[in-house]
Design goal:
The complex is a heterodimer of chains A (433) and B (141). In chain A, the strands form 5 sheets. A 9-stranded mixed β-sheet of chain A has the order 4-3-5-6-7-8-9-14-13. A 4-stranded mixed β-sheet of chain A has the order 19-18-17-20. In chain A, helix 7 crosses helix 8 and helix 8 packs parallel to helix 9. Chain A has 2 domains: 325 residues, ANL, N-terminal domain (Rossmann fold), CATH 3.40.50.12780; 98 residues, ANL, C-terminal domain (GMP Synthetase, Chain A, domain 3), CATH 3.30.300.30. Helix content of chain A is 31%, strand content 22%. In chain A, strand 3, helix 6 and strand 4 form a beta-alpha-beta unit. By secondary structure, chain A is an alpha/beta fold. A 6-stranded antiparallel β-sheet of chain B has the order 2-3-1-4-6-5, sandwiched between helices. Chain B is globular, with a radius of gyration of 16 Å. Classes of the chains: A alpha/beta (433), B alpha+beta (141). At the A-B interface, helix 11 and strand 19 of A face strand 1, strand 3 and strand 4 of B.
Chain lengths: 433, 141
């Protein structure tokens, strides 16, 4: 028996989910047409009206929205309700330099919190649990989403927000927290600090972690699971669509279930915009089916992943997405080759280094320079200069094998790369392109 | 008896060695001998100190990566020819030296060797009448 928050919909037969989407999509498109002039104009330009959308199968006829649209329509251009009906805003972290503000009605908040509650239940959470939310509270959706979800499940919610790691650890130990919600890099940091303080995994009361909001590798997952003695679950979401909980992992830990009663997912060819068949790798696109204040249709996430409808042992029937290879915003093109920070992380962790690194890209004489700074660890240090150089070379060879281009590895002092309490600064790109 | 040398990882940039000496100074650790091996990006500082336990603890607390390495220390006459005599014994015993450094005291000179098989080297040299110094003896120099 699984642990569900809304079993009836989470485990509904596919036909029931499809029927719901067929019913909701035409209504939602008409609602947006009537209330969001910005999108109506896009539909008119494409020669499509709400009458053309009779079921979910007609979704592909509609125009896309992208981050550029959000920027152009800032701040109210995509708002579908009067401001008096909105109760809340959240804003993106602005990591890519374009701040986005999204609005929520009370119903929007409810559906978002329901999704987060489902994620907590999927990680085994019940009203017996103490759930520490160490995502940042405030404009960032991480704190607010998991906080609301935790309330709905009935967990004792500990709203520590991010930062002040010693205090985080005090609450984990004193209140015997069983679930930790934060970014994976912060979970790794909390784990590292606990280890330094002499705590063994069996001394730590945590049993599950719900980590998201940045790309992380399987190797990093295993490392966090080992250090904290927990099962680590991935959660996915984006502010534009609501926040964390749009998709999340179950006990199977093989892909994240997308909450299809609220969101339709498509995979498209990022170059042509053509919808790709199930199982293809491409860009993830979301349409919200029942959001009121900020109802985006065919929003291009720039996340690269694949979808699968293979039966899941957890009982949930909603489609699963693979961990995004990296948001295409995170992807670097170095000497013409696509490089995702998560690939570098994989090589480091396979070679016994921590997931703390920094990528420095520059340009000298029209050629890209590519350096990866890696912190020396007690386990990897030896008194023998030749041996240290040889281990550095092993890393360089591993990166070359993974990426196809050569990176220069620089070993730096422990703790010299700034630790993240929110999202890690992994990339410094000084190229002027 | 071999002695414990403290080896520390340092980035090769201005101020890093000073940060190390600052930590040791603040904790009253006395450096008896020091040598530095470097590449263009990083270096390894090798030191004999009066208090190995204290040194490794405070370095760890201050986020340095350090490790202990067994080395052999020999005291010789501070006169021409004595290092040559000592090394002839190493050659005769076929002991390969990875690296060495030295310092001169008031009366004698001290030679510190890192060899690939410390235990074997020590017993071979011992059989030739060469006694390596103990941790206490080095600390007392």
């Amino acid at each position: 028996m699984g642990n569900y928050f809304q079993e009836e919909i989470e485990c509904a037969p596919l036909e029931k989910i499809r029927a719901l989407q067929d019913e909701l999509l035409p209504k939602q498109v008409r609602y947006v047409w009537e209330n969001v002039p910005y999108y109506r104009k896009k539909m008119e330009e494409q020669g499509v009206t709400p009458d053309d959308i009779k079921s979910a199968a007609d979704l592909h006829k509609l125009p896309f929205l992208s981050k550029a649209d959000l920027k152009a329509a800032y701040p109210y251009g995509l708002l579908a309700v009067p401001l008096k009906d909105c109760v809340r805003i959240q804003s993106t972290s602005g990591t890519t330099g374009k701040r986005v503000i999204v609005f929520y009605t009370q119903e929007d908040l409810d559906l978002w919190e329901d999704c987060c509650a489902r994620a907590i239940c999927a990680a085994g959470g019940t009203n017996e649990d103490v759930c520490q939310v160490s995502y940042g509270y405030g404009l960032f959706t991480g704190g607010a989403g998991l906080d609301g979800g935790s309330h709905k499940v009935g967990c004792l919610t500990v709203p520590t927000s991010s930062g002040n790691t010693e205090r985080q650890i005090m609450f984990i130990m004193d209140l015997q927290a069983t679930i930790l919600c934060c970014t994976p890099s912060y979970a790794a940091y909390i784990g590292e600090t606990l280890k330094e303080m002499g705590y063994k995994p069996e001394d730590i009361p945590l049993k599950a972690g719900i980590f998201g909001a940045e790309a992380w590798s399987e190797e990093m997952r295993r490392d966090i699971e080992k250090t904290l003695g927990i099962k680590a679950y991935d959660i996915y979401g984006l502010t534009e669509i609501s926040g964390p909980g749009v998709a999340f992992e179950c006990s199977e830990q093989r892909g994240m279930h997308i909450q299809e009663d609220h969101f339709i997912a498509e995979i498209i060819d990022p170059n042509t915009g053509e919808v790709l068949p199930e199982g293809s790798q491409g860009e993830l696109v979301f349409t919200s089916l029942d959001k009121k204040a900020f109802p985006l249709i065919r929003y291009r996430t720039r996340d690269i992943c694949t979808l699968t409808r293979e039966k899941c042992s957890c009982g949930r029937t909603h489609v699963r997405m693979t961990k995004p290879k990296g948001r295409s915003d995170d992807m670097l093109i170095i000497r013409g080759v696509n490089v995702f920070p998560s690939q570098i992380e994989t090589v480091l962790m396979n070679n016994g280094y921590a997931a703390n690194y920094q990528i420095i890209v520059g340009r000298v004489n029209n050629t890209d320079t590519f350096e990866v700074k890696v912190e020396m660890t007690p386990d990897m240090f030896t008194d023998n200069l030749g041996e240290v150089q040889a281990r550095r070379k092993v890393l360089e060879d591993g990166l070359k094998a993974m990426l196809g281009i050569k990176a220069k590895v620089t070993l730096v002092a422990p703790k010299s790369i700034a630790r993240s309490e929110g999202k890690a600064v992994r990339v410094i790109d000084t190229r002027k392109i | 008896m071999s002695v414990n040398q403290v080896s520390v990882f340092l980035e090769n940039k201005a101020g890093t060695l000073n940060k190390l000496t600052e930590v040791l100074a603040a904790n009253n650790v006395n450096i008896r001998a020091l040598s530095l091996a470097e590449t263009s990006e990083f270096g390894i500082v090798r030191m004999l100190v009066n208090d190995v336990f204290e040194a490794t603890n405070v370095l760890k607390e201050n986020n340095f990566v350090a490790t202990l390495t067994p080395v052999l220390a020999y005291a010789i006459e501070d006169k021409a020819g004595y290092l040559n005599n000592l090394l002839q014994n190493f050659s005769a015993a076929e002991v390969n030296i990875e690296y060495m450094y030295a310092f001169a005291g008031k009366e004698r000179a001290y030679m510190i060797f890192r060899v690939n098989d410390t235990k074997r080297a020590e017993s071979l040299l011992n059989s030739k009448g060469l006694k390596s110094l103990t941790q206490e003896e080095i600390s007392a120099v």
